[in-house]
Amino acid sequence: MSTNKPSCMVIFPPVWEMAAPFLAGPALVGYLRSKGFHASLFDANNFFWDHFKNPANAANIWDRCVREKDNPNLNIEDGIVSDWAANFAKDDFIRWFTSTSIDSPNYELLVRCFGGFRGLTYTGEDDPLRYHDKYFADISHSYASVHSGKLFDYIYNDNRNPWPSFARDSILPVIEGKRPAVLGISIVAPNQVIPAFAIAAEARRAWSQMHIIFGGAWVTHLRARIAKVQWFGEKEFFFVPFQGEKVLEQVMKALQFGGDVNKICQDALCSDTPLHCLPLADLPTPDFSDLNLDSYAEAGHIPLMASKGCYWARCQFCSYPLLEPKYEVRSRDNLRKDLLHYVNEYRATHISFTDPSISVPVAKRISETIKQEGLHLTWGAFARLEAQFTREVLDYLAKHGCVVMHWGLETGSERIQRDLTKGIDFNIVKKVLSSSAEAGIHNRILMMYGFPQETEEDLSASLDIIENLLPNVGSVCWSRCTIEMDTGLSETFYGNNFADGLDLSLGTVADTIYSPDFLKEKEYRMQNICARLALRNSNLNSETVKRGAVL
User: Any idea what DSSP says for residue 168?
Assistant: First the structure.
């Protein structure tokens, strides 16, 4: 037994968006520190995007552009950016590349195509990835993440995989600097699986006694299947689903005073319900102090949670009720403390509320706090299109910080709305969006298509309603419907045969009953709508547009 307190390092792995930090790590580290434990946070995703600014890496990218610019196999976008880069003198390119923001579209394109990580993208056989990792699939290599056997081979035996060497050369030195007793790795979605397991595999090779614990939404969703993967146990990897704060605290106490870490983690993994959950109202303010917040694409934009779980929790396609079964609201006093701390300690200018769906009372509480404390803050959130968002409410929210709302409309078909139990009235939708736009809030509409049994008329209705609402719409996000495991749609259309043979798949794209040509035609129309909105937004205030683009 040792009275020396062990240390924990929490890693957020690539590949994820580069706009702002993800909330889970700062929340976990903040809790452990509040309990007196040594904890550190490493955003390996931000490190990944930023590390290309090293002059040697920048030079390698320029060299590849010069070699590849005339390659007929490049797509149009990659061909243009490679030709653009190759027209620089090498030293001039290095100066530009090492000083530009990771928010630059050209920077991201050059990293993705010529940074040495691009691999196979998804194919027709990889439908489970279309929703979860369509955007990052080219560099995340997530096509190898949906089956435990393929995952093992790709991490340990496939020399085409660039992530183990990245982990070994770039991530392990950071871990070595802390040499934690516990390494926590948070996986949100499949686009982080290959990098995360590459980090874990290399850490296990280097430090056989280190306790490596995976957590996050990916673990929560797949917990029953993860428990059956033999090689996870052989590599001594632990998995903690649901909220990890209290379980990790127990692990740290077991290491300090003597206890069975394996039993603590196994009990958490094998439980059908969350163990040792802590009320959102009582958790400390998330701790971002280990992060260089100026290095993110949206400097000054920081995430926060004012409510946990979804107060509606009835949508048949949604997995939030599985991941966060209980709806909770942050206490008024703690929300005030959070906002003051974010402004005073982290120079926050915009708060991205990550609540699955923010209610009117919670939204009003946010604006009330900003007003009462005299804070110079803007904020945005996800919300339901419901009657309680009146013109009076929206004017108040806009007057006190709200600049963007992400509204989940999903479909313009009344039949599919009923099937999904969205509980949305299209007359209310028009009123809310009109009032929100008039109040000066950027309305970002979240739409899905390709639902099971969606007809041509249903899909056309979705496009029609967006066209009709266009004067009050700021931007639209179109997503191909993926049926996620254990949701209402999964039970209706797949039963117990969900994703047979793909034991680590979170979902699968539904087969459409209309023709591929019809789908292609409608997807082109979706792109056209987005292009028209982008052109219109280019004449608006750039900060408002930027906040509307990335919450």
Answer: I
